[in-house]
Amino acid sequence: MGELDQVYLQLHCSFAATRPEFFLKQLCSGVIEPGKAIKRSAARHEQRFPLIQKRKFSSPLLRLRNYIAYAEKKGLISPELMSALSLAEAKEKNYSSAREILGNIEDKYQAETWYLEATAMVALHEALDQEKEINVPEFKKIRDSYVELVNAEGDVPAYWHELAITMQVLGYPRPKYVNMLEQAYLRAPRDINIAWWYAHELYLNRDVERFSRVSQPLLMQITRSESREHFESMIRDLNRETLPFTDSAFTDNSEEVSGLGQLMKDYQFLSENKALAMALDYRGAFVVGYIDNVASQTEANQLALQACEEQRAQLRVKDRCELYAEGETIIRSP
């Protein structure tokens, strides 16, 4: 019996799919460290400061530090350049250094968009990196910063993307934060992190037309075989003529693969009084809990949510668990 078969024989299982540059893993126990969601690093600011020389095997942080040392000698240092350094420090999880750098920037610059961007981004990713529960009042301040950024420069896709992240973590209804995510995608359809999350949301909405438009270019960007297999399973699922929980939906004899689409196929063959709960966060990381053959549908719903929540907490998936399927019916709506 293969490893995948053992997974599906468990009472409930969880899948944790990370961003496409990380591995897709199937598991019922253990811990996976999902991909991080830091969207902008020194790379973006290198475009503003082209004198930065890219050296092989050097990190953006090291390159930027070297450039700042050079700029200081030449008298070319600027507050905006220091804000770029704070972003690079945050990317390396040096949050105290990032805050210290921003704190040393003169007050007269703190109304500038670049300063607000840096402070919001550092605060957001430091909060997301904490193992403990978020500080809701402080996280709402971060959300408000992104609202201000969107209002100031609405053409920047990262602002919309990170606003969507704050809204999801704060527990906004899916349609509200997915609308923000869509705005990010429309402004940067080739951003792999934005498209990866957006494609998963479209898949869960069973939005075949838009999923197809997003998935075709995205599939060309995905390089890891595990992530491609996961994504292709969703494509095959939505390309079927009917929704996945009808008797005729899974009559093909294609080889079994791993991925969310394959999980949905397996769920279709479970017996009555079954339920499936899921949490999917901004990284495209998700967990699933499902169960069948219990005394009642109410009990199945409760156990599926419980199974999902156990894995969600363990794997630090930021979204809340919700019922996606109850019996033969998809109940999670756009």
Description:
This protein has 334 residues and is of the alpha+beta class. The strands form 2 sheets. A 4-stranded antiparallel beta sheet has the order 4-3-5-6. The chain has a two-stranded antiparallel sheet with strand order 1-2. The N terminus is likely disordered. The protein has 14 helices and 6 strands. The two termini are 38 Å apart.
Q: Element order, helices and strands?
A: HEEHHHHHHHHHHHHEEHEE
Strand numbers in spatial order across the main sheet: 4-3-5-6
Strand content: 5-15%
Radius of gyration: 22 Å
Q: Name the structural class.
A: alpha+beta
| Helicity range | 40-55%
Shape: elongated
Largest sheet: 4 strands, antiparallel
Q: Strand tally, please?
A: 6
Output the number of helix runs: 14
Low-confidence spans: 1-57, 241-254
Mean pLDDT: 78
Between the first and last Cα atoms, what is the distance in angstroms?
A: 38 Å
Short description:
The protein has 14 helices and 6 strands. The protein is of the alpha+beta class.
Protein traits:
334 residues; 14 helices; 6 strands; disordered N terminus
List strands and helices in order, with pairings.
Layout: H1 3-8, E1 14-17, E2 24-27, H2 42-48, H3 60-74, H4 79-91, H5 95-103, H6 113-128, H7 136-152, H8 157-169, H9 174-187, H10 192-204, H11 208-221, H12 225-238, H13 260-268, E3 275-280, E4 286-291, H14 297-315, E5 322-326, E6 329-330
Antiparallel strand pairs: 1-2, 3-4, 3-5, 5-6
Helix pairs in contact: 3-4, 4-5, 4-6, 5-6, 6-7, 7-8, 8-9, 9-10, 10-11, 11-12, 12-13
